[in-house]
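hey so i finally got around to running both of the ones u sent me last week. sorry it took forever, my laptop kept dying halfway thru and i had to restart like 3 times lol. anyway pasting them below in the order u listed, first the sequence line then the structure token line for each. didnt double check formatting much so if smth looks off just lmk and ill redo it

first one:
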Amino acid sequence: MEEKCKLEANGLKLIELHSHAEPIDDIDSDKLDAVIRENFAGRCYVVAWLDYKVLIGIWEDEAFHFYGGEQFEEKYIQRLRVFNQQKEFHVWRSNGRLKGRLRTDNLSGTGSTVVVAHQVLFGTTARALNAHFTEISERRGTKLILPFSNVKVDDKQNRVFIKTHSYITFNPVHQATYSDCRFVGFTDGQKALP
């Protein structure tokens, strides 16, 4: 009970759920699109770390949507996360090839011990770019463009967070470690953002 209180005091929550991860190797543009189409029917979020920038947008209607209609080629992907409340497709470049894993969570199950966290994003000033995108920034120059509107941020309590699930596994001598982490969604720290 004492450990649970320490976790909650630090903004973390320990839960049990059923989770399954499937490795996916040798990903090319066709396979990337196919895995996303087969696993994400509705709107979901996308974070793409490219060789030259980071893009945050959505996957909807079988296409990526970023601010200003920006797109990218598969050859520039360093890391990519496509995610919603139930699953995440995580892709990364390793030795010049794209690899990935698809993780699916079932909140009504058990079997996986998970730490739920809300990681604060840089951004203490918000500026609406249009009806669908908002730029959050800080005076030191950090800027992020987010795929939703009506964002309220400041340098106090109002911030945007990325909700994560970190999966705990135990080695043969019962030492705990994180084996994986997935993005779940954007929040204001309490409730999900659209």
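and the second one:
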Amino acid sequence: MKRGDDFWSRRRAAVTSEAEAEAKAVLDAGTAEAAADLEERPDDEILAELGLPDPAAMKQGDDFTAFLQAAVPERLRRRALRQLWRSNPVLANVDGLVEYGGDFTDASTVVENLQTAYQVGKGMLKHVEALMAQAEEAAVAEEALPDPADEPVALAEAAPDMPVAPPEAEAEAPPPRRRMQFQFDAEGAVG
């Protein structure tokens, strides 16, 4: 029997988890009561009680971490974070590469007579066809250039000291590689 699989180990673990759940429920109830009390009070009173500055008056370089405490109501935390994002240019200027940054389901934002190269089921067909045509033109232009491999005599004349391989030698496959083999003697030395 493994340790922890007997009845008393399971019972001790269950009692511990029940006690933790009970403590968490009491803490959550106290937090909920405090949050309900803070929701009824105005922001100015809460800020004065907690010793926090007005979030709207804060600027870049100020310490916003005090607003992240559990005692601060959610609405004040959000106000402070909004001000942080507005004041910091790194956080405020989104580069436009956010994939789901816009609401494209809103029909009122659609431009009338919008035309695009995108075709359903075919994608950006004209753009891809134009790229393929450019690639074909480049291939045709490359074929028009003389291939130095076609003229081995000219290469031999240009560099007489370099041997020119016959075309059938190029077609041969290289020999297979040998695998390394190790032999060990009785003392464990590699030979």
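quick thing i noticed on the 2nd:
Residues 95 and 148 are 49 Å apart (CA to CA).
anyway thats it, ttyl
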